[in-house]
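Notes taken during the Thursday session

The instructor put the following on the board and asked us to keep it in front of us for the whole hour. The protein is DNA-binding protein. We were told not to look anything up and to reason only from what is written here. First, the residues (223 in total):
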Amino acid sequence: MSEVKHQLQHYIPIAKTIAQMFGHSCEVVIHDLTQPQSSVMFTINNHVTGREIGQSFDHLVKQVLLSDEFDEDYLAGYEIKTEDGRTIKASTTLLRDEKDQVIGALCINYDMSAVSHVKKLIGELIPGLSNEMPAKQRNEDKDSMQSVDEIADRLIDQIISHQKGSLKKRQEKIELIRFMDEKGIFLMKGSVDKVAERLGISKVTVYSYLDELKKMKESEETV
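Then, after some discussion, the predicted structure tokens were revealed:
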């Protein structure tokens, strides 16, 4: 067992406690972010979103790291939608090792179906009732922005270093860039430069691969 996995296993009792505390509608997932392509290492009540051990992360970059409200290594109360249209209220906390490196994430996903039904009933009984919480104010200091950049850098390094294969062939590089594109890596500022440097190719090549992937996707959608 790797040292990182051993450290992350210490969070499993916390995950189980949260799930038992909030019941059947509450899913808790632990990600090993040193293994980005198969980051899910533990899940409980996974009927909520269908997360399985060995899957990769989905919302970490697009909805957590890039959120205006992400600060101090956590984002609480953002919403995601399941394929069957259910609303999930989610929270993500990054997990660091003794060297202050991000090694994992603990995610709580709560199915709001029953709550929404109750809220609707209460709203009908008490018109104008609102329990919305004020938005969390983000700390826009330099350290906060550097933290996100460092996390992005580490994710890119981990994704490339754990890629199966030699990455000598063009198709292998395209598939790796496809994975990073799907996970939102290229939404991060400066990510194209970083990926190009680590893969030993030009920025123009990265953009051409992304353009090729976009055209392939559009072609598949029109079939």
